[in-house]
Description:
mainly alpha, 14 helices, 73% helix, globular
Amino acid sequence: MVQPWIHKAKTDGVFILAPSFIVLAIVLLFQNWLTEIEESYSFYTWLFLIVFIDVAHVYSTLFKTYFVASEFQRRKQLYIGLPIFCFLIGFILFLFGSQVFWSVLAYVAVFHFIRQQYGFMRLYARNEDKTYAWIDNLIIYSATIYPMLYWFLSPKRKFNWFVENEFLKYENATLLEVLTWIYFAIVVFYIVRTIYISIKSNYFNIPKNAIIIGTMLSWYFGIVYFNNDLVFTLLNVVSHGIPYMALIYLNEIEKKTSENLGFLSMLKHYKGVLIFIAILLVIAFSEEFLWEILVWNEQISITNFDFSNWQFILVPLLTVPQFTHYLLDGFIWKSKKQ
């Protein structure tokens, strides 16, 4: 059987499968160096990890939706209505307090991150018999849900998704121990079954298993094993953002015909990927710049105006692209073949 690459072995391997392993290797090899970076270069870690990867990957969705004229016309009501819906929901949530707003958004974000790993796994398993797809589902969901349950059930961690105290906590060492045993039993089952099936069929699905293993490692080490903000951000943001941007470019631009892309066809030539990245960086920095001067005032502060009385409008408004991205992904990647 041919390996079910999304694009090609080399590009899938470098940009979709490798980031989890590369970042984990850096974390394991340079822990002390990362601690120094976190303490001394917070602005640059924020700029490159949060702005240039996390925020940028949100806007890469534009190249599959709003920037594609035929696609926008096909689902115009969805693409116009969903941002309005997100703003209204955000506005209502913020009326209950910023803590309620960020908590709800954090849970939605976690669900989005989990579903992305599931989505990649299903893409790479698309040619396999669906009879035992539930086993793959069990494994990928265990790889993501167990670390989150560990977070919820263990003492306070040194990192947050968005803000402090965003998740409901229930410290229970006994329950946590039971879940840990179940998790590792599933991991052992996955390893034994994969070896058995590979020998029996004389076939090993490289990208599907790489996604599963990479997810297991990045979520476990990022949330459970290490208790460090920069390590969590590295493993969480890089492993999520770079594969998503790569998927958009490789699957939605590079593989499509110029007729289907319209003005985006200019991104298909050899410098196109640089233009694609540049557009994302400019938009991402612009959004985060607004966050900084209007809300956070942590990394950049160039104004003496006080916007504190307008947070109930500004925060839900600025969150619209992010919130829309989380929900929109549930529509644009659906396929009956998966």
